[in-house]
């Protein structure tokens, strides 16, 4: 490990799979770049992991989620992409909506203007999920885990 790392950056994400065997992806324009990732965001000081999931769900979807179970926590060193002296730890939970999605779901990736903070959601076939679709390193690993776990048989 490098001595330039002085902080942790903890991110919490949800994996939502619908009845059509599709996973919800978030397309975003942040820090002057397009990215495809799982929905979620940063853990705040004094906040629990599941509280973070619930808050992020209300911020991003405007509706509640039911948490099913923990899925994965980063088990390798990952330097944060956007903060030079941070180590990234990402925590993923399987979840589902408590009612039909009440937000707009796009049919195409990046269904917005490239303005920082822009975001759109889309369902993506679980059979086709893979690392190449995702932007961030830990999301890439989780995409391959999903493909392996949910596409058996």
In short:
This protein is an alpha+beta fold. It has helices at residues 49-60, 137-150, and strands at residues 7-16, 22-30, 33-37, 40-42, 65-73, 86-97, 118-125. The strands form two sheets. Strands 4-1-6-5 form a four-stranded mixed beta sheet, covered by helices on one side.
Top keywords for this entry?
single chain; 153 residues; alpha+beta; Nucleoside Triphosphate Pyrophosphohydrolase; 4-stranded mixed beta sheet; 3-stranded antiparallel beta sheet; 7 strands; 17% helix
Strands, helices and their partners?
Layout: E1 7-16, E2 22-30, E3 33-37, E4 40-42, H1 49-60, E5 65-73, E6 86-97, E7 118-125, H2 137-150
Parallel strand pairs: 1-6
Antiparallel strand pairs: 1-4, 2-3, 2-7, 5-6
How does this model look, in words?
This protein is 17% helix and 37% strand. It has one domain: Nucleoside Triphosphate Pyrophosphohydrolase, CATH 3.90.79. The chain is α+β, with helices and mostly antiparallel strands and 153 residues long. The strands form two sheets. The chain has a four-stranded mixed sheet with strand order 4-1-6-5, with helices on one face. The chain is globular, with a radius of gyration of 15 Å. A hairpin with a 2-residue loop joins strand 2 and strand 3.
């Amino acid at each position: 490990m490098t001595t330039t790392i002085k902080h942790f950056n903890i991110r919490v994400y949800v994996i939502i799979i619908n009845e059509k065997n599709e996973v919800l992806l978030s397309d975003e324009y942040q820090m002057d770049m397009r990215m495809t990732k799982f929905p979620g965001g940063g853990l705040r000081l004094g906040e629990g992991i599941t509280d973070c999931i619930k808050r992020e769900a209300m911020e991003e979807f405007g509706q509640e989620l039911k948490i099913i179970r923990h899925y994965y926590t980063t088990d390798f060193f990952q330097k944060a992409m956007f903060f030079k002296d941070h180590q990234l730890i990402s925590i993923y939970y399987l979840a589902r909506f408590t009612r039909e999605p009440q937000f707009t779901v796009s049919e195409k990736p990046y269904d917005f203007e490239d303005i920082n903070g822009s975001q759109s959601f889309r369902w993506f076939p679980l059979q086709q999920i893979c690392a190449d679709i995702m932007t961030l390193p830990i999301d890439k690993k989780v995409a391959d885990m999903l493909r392996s776990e949910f596409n058996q048989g």
